[in-house]
Each structure stands twice: as C-alpha cells, then as structure tokens.
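Lab notebook page, bench 4
Experiment: in silico fold of construct C2
Operator: M.H.
Input chain length: 166 residues
Purpose: comparison with the prior construct
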Amino acid sequence: MPVQDIVRFPNSMLKQPATPITAFGAQTSSLVRDLIDTMRAHLHCVGLAAPQIGVSLRACVIDVSSHAKAQTSYGEVVLLNPEIVESREFVMAREGCMSVPDLTGDVPRAGLIAVRFHTLLGEVRTLEVRGFEARAFQHEIDHLDGLLFLDRADSHHGIFRRKAYR
C-alpha cells in the first residue's frame, strides 16, 4: 500500500471527532495497511491515527517496540474504535507529533491505562498498557477525538520549538 501524506495542523480534519468503524472488511484492512506503511516510513514515528492521513475514521496503529523510552511493548497494535476504560498514575512528559512537526509539549498522561477496542475481525479486546506505550495510546486516541497534544499541554509555557537533530 502507498505511504500517505501527513495532515498537518491547522487542518480542520485534526480538530474533528472521527466516525466509528462499523464494517470490518477489506476497506478497513486497506486503511490499516496505509497507516502502518505511513508510520513505518517516518523515522521515530511510534503511532498514527486515521485523521492524520485524511481519513475521519476511528482507527490508529501503534508500535513503540523500537523506541528507547519503551520499557514494555505489545509490538504492532491496531486499534479500531478504541476507548480508554481506566486510567491512573498520571505523569508529565514531553510529546511530539507528526501533524505538529515544529513543536513539542509537556503533557500530563496516565502511566497506566486499560483500552477496549475492536480488532480487524471486529472482535472486542481490552489491553492494559503502561509507561511510554500508554502515552502513545492516549496520544493516538486523542487524534480520534479531535484533540492534539497542544490541547493537553499544561499551559502555553509547556510548548516548545522542536530541536533540530543532525
């Protein structure tokens, strides 16, 4: 599948809640493949939500397994219609986003969450997720709710220009 362009802020697509997925077939599988291919094409990307490639559906993919901050990982995870059903142990940490490439921000997130979601086959599952992986799940689910990390930052003092790495 082709790598898709990343939708960037201030595009209004990023501020709209995405539509729930009701059909779990070839079209949804194709969307997920595009999300995975696009995520893999961008160095340091650990997750991507459908609105970030211009599709207003509740689908996202996450894989933190190769990130230095990840102490635990389920590997490549596909979340359709995800919902956080439990959250606790809040911590502040810096986040960035493919859709807001020039900024990072200090964002409070739960360090432990439980997420209920559909699989590609339409089965309902629940995962308990910790640490950096929990942060990535929350970040991508926010995209499905029309939120950016900028909306979650503690204050405008917690928003920073991204450093250029060589």
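Observations: The first strand starts at residue 47 and ends at 49. The chain has a mean pLDDT of 94.
Next step: discuss at group meeting.
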